[in-house]
Amino acid sequence: MRNVSSEEISQPQLRTSRSALLLWLPPLGLILAALLLQALARRHPLWVERYYSQRLFPPITRVLSLINGIVSFSIAELMIAILPLAVGVVLFYQVHQIYRRRRSVAQLLRLNLLVLTWILGAAMMSFLLIWGLNYQREPLSIRFGFAGRNATDDQLKSISETIVSQLNANYTASHFNSDNSPTTSPARAKVYELIESSYQNESLLADAGGRHFGPPKPVYTSGVMSRLGLSGFYMPFTGEPNFNAAQPDFDLPYVIAHEKAHQRGFALEDEANFIAFLVCVSSPDPYVRYSGYLNALKVVSALPASDPVFFKSLVARIGDGPRQDLRARAAFWSRYQGPARAAAERFNDTYLKANRISSGTRNYTEDIALIVGYYLKQSQSDQGTMRTKQ
Predict the structure, then answer these.
(1) In this structure, what are the phi and psi dihedrals at residue 176, rounded to the nearest 5 degrees?
(2) DSSP 200-253
(3) What is the pLDDT of residues 326-361, one digit of tens each?
(4) 253, 194 in Cβ contact below 8 A?
(5) Are 243 and 259 in contact (CB under 8 A)?
(6) Would you state the torsion angle of the CA atoms of residues 155, 161, 165, 167, taken in this order, to the nearest 10 degrees?
């Protein structure tokens, strides 16, 4: 009988270790490549703007829009519903494998971890290439010329007065006819059309506004969205703007416009909020304009605390109709306070920070600066026009 040397025993083990390492290198390399791509994009926003957001992204989202425009239901919602079912089937199969002693628990754990690593790497890279690089594009405040525009106390008061005045005027125009008889709100299909038309005609958005995209999708499980505190969400992998159909109707034009801003490559929440405001208040329909001004009331909260008398007098000018809508909105969302909503907010905060938005969910309120910058630029343009005429 031949004696087996220690070298002959160690060589198969070494080959096994190398084979295992080779299995892990591609998915780990994919994750690393995605992280490096994101870091590189953050350092070069002009490159992202010029080569990705304006050239590569538009054809991608057009193709996705053609696909999701074929069906009226949300493909994203269907995918989310199927996912736990698929996971359950896989787990059941693996438990059966263990029971039949065809595979050990350790083997399946290693396999699952490898598969999850592949899924994570593929998801990260495809997310960035399909849509996620838009988080690193040139800031909208620079592109629109709002950067460096700081309002004085008097300017902020004037802007707030304009918003409250337009809010009241558009509520009246959208809820009453010329003879003061009540009117009906436009149907959802009409709202979709009005929002898309406003995007097409908004010159400030240039090419991004003029492109045609797939329709917004109401979510059938809107009750679940309400419990999670979600008014809408955009699914990058399907190119679909989805919205919570259970929320108050007066918020729908703004929410739909917000999600369609994501569809056009405006990834940051404050920028999508501002685009939604801009598109809504530019609409020829008073109901859509009212939704935009109602969601712009947050600007009033930015008034200086040094003049509480003015703040109280301005709040008192808000009409009874808008006040009722604000109370209805607060009552709707207060019904869904709970651990599910808190968990969803933490997840969203983590997601935004992972995409290099340091403020996390606070980014939703940072559109105040963009709205103020917009009004300041408009005021400067008007003054320039007057000087030219003189």
Answers:
(1) -140, 145
(2) HH-GGGTHHHHS--PPPEEETTHHHHHHTT-SEEEETTTTEEEEETTS-GGGHH
(3) 999 999 999 999 999 999 999 999 999 999 899 999
(4) yes
(5) yes
(6) 90
Tokens of 269: 């929440």
Residue 67: which region, alpha, beta or left (left: phi > 0; alpha: psi -120 to 50)?
Answer: alpha
The whole-angstrom distance between residue 41's C-alpha and the CA centroid of its chain comes to: 19
Residue 69 gets the label, from left (phi > 0), alpha (psi -120 to 50) or beta, of: alpha
Token readout for 302 is 């930015």
CA–CA separation, 178 vs 261, rounded Å? 34
Given this model, what pLDDT does residue 385 score? 44
Question: What percent helix, strand, coil does the chain show, rounded to 5?
Answer: 75, 5, 25
**For position 389, what pLDDT does the model report?**
42
In this predicted structure, the answer to whether residue 153 has a pLDDT above a threshold of 60 is: yes
Confirm if 30 and 124 have CB atoms less than 8 A apart: yes
State how far the alpha carbon of 240 is from the alpha carbons of 8, 65, 75, 221, 355, in Å. Answer: 58, 7, 8, 16, 20
Which one is predicted more confidently, 2 or 254?
A: 254
Q: Is 176 helix (H, G, I), strand (E, B) or coil?
A: strand
pLDDT for 202 equals 87
Q: Cα-flanking dihedrals φ and ψ of residue 216, to 5°?
A: -70, 150
C-beta of residue 275 within 8 angstroms of C-beta of residue 261:
yes
- The sign of the CA dihedral 125, 131, 132, 135 is positive
Query: What's the rounded Cα separation, in Å, for the pair 381 and 370?
Result: 16
